[in-house]
Amino acid sequence: MRWPNVLVPWACRAQTDDILDIPRLPVNVKHTILALWFLRHGPDGALADAVEFFYHPHEAPSARARYLFLELLNQGAWPTSGALEVAARLGDVHLVELLLRLPEGQAVSRSAVHAASLAVWPPADVNAGSGTQMSSSRTAVDPTWTVASLSRALHQAASEGDTHVMEVLLKETRVLTYEACEGAVCVAARFGEVNALRLLLNALSLELDEGSMAALAKETWEAFVDDPSDHLSSSTVREIVQVLLQHTAPVTHEVLSAAARHGWLEAVRVLLAKGADPSEESGACLCEAARSGNVELVELLLQAINGRLPAPKFRKAVAVAAAAAAEARHEASEAEEEEAESAAAMDAAGLAARFAQVADLLAVWSKYL
């Protein structure tokens, strides 16, 4: 009698820890039982669930986990878009390669699984549990994988900045289109993954015309300024702006104002050096900078606008910016009072102090205009 037929009822009732803790049970039998446990709800989501369960952040999957993935495939689990996305998000480049060599969304023969595993995980690698190096040969992507599935996996890898996984996916030229890569490019910019952004744009520049690249860079910039990650450093922002400008992102007043609104000093420096005109729209970017509370940025724009606008218009721009700073300072002071002695109150107090510095700077300039 075959092991799976005997173990199916028990495996469906057990928990993974119960299975792993069974004493004196051969490892290959544990793998079979675990495979049946993950397959209890069907073949389409089993592999994705197993990868999520056995993966430890910042660590290569163990040899035991790899053997389980292979056993799952041997027992009928499907290589699905969901499994590919999870593997891409978690950075297991070898598992990504393995899945891409197998047909999407269908059962795979044991011989096909074996051949793919040998190509991706040579026996020495499997035994050692190494998962950081890519296989030397070009990944042969099965034609049943849809562009939509590859695009979603690329999006996941880009959000994590995993260029190794991205390189594997980008070798499939079907994915090198505006539509397939648009989401990945935007998410790489939003999350500050500079290397991932550079890799994507460089690969796409070989396939897309100049107009398409300019449109993609513009859309990426808009996504970046609309919803940037909170943890981005000034140097990261500067690099992202530089990468986008290399691919003909437009240097417009709207772009400059958006950077000023976020208080991105280094990005504004780059844009000014590339020819952005801070005096357009009567120096409206100065008001955006004042609302950001970045006194260095306000001073930079004051110096850049000086001499570009007629004196009356410059005085008006300074007055509007001063009013914006005063309003922002008032709001920060009210927030400080409402929060009492909490950490939020300390943040509000610091913000109010920055707006006070901006207001003082603008007042000094007003006297000499």
Describe what you observe in this structure:
- With 369 residues, the protein is mostly helical.
- The protein has a domain at 285-369.
- It is 70% helix and 0% strand.
- The chain contains 21 helices and no strands.
- Residues 1-14 and 126-136 have low confidence and may be disordered.
Order of helices and strands: HHHHHHHHHHHHHHHHHHHHH
Unreliable segments (pLDDT under 50, ≥5 consecutive)? 1-14, 126-136
Helix tally equals 21
- Structural class of the secondary structure composition? mainly alpha
Largest sheet: none
Rg on CA atoms, Å: 28 Å
Amount of helix: 55-70%
Q: Tell me the β content.
A: under 5%
Q: Average pLDDT across residues? A: 84
Give the tally of β-strands: 0
User: What is the approximate shape?
Assistant: elongated
What separation lies between the terminal Cα atoms? 95 Å
How do the strands and helices of this protein lay out in sequence?
Elements: H1 3-13, H2 16-20, H3 27-38, H4 46-54, H5 63-74, H6 81-90, H7 93-100, H8 110-120, H9 123-128, H10 147-160, H11 163-170, H12 178-190, H13 194-205, H14 210-226, H15 234-246, H16 253-261, H17 265-273, H18 280-292, H19 295-305, H20 311-339, H21 343-367
Brief overview:
With 369 residues, the protein is mainly alpha-helical. It is 70% helix and 0% strand.
For the structure shown, list the relevant keywords.
mainly alpha
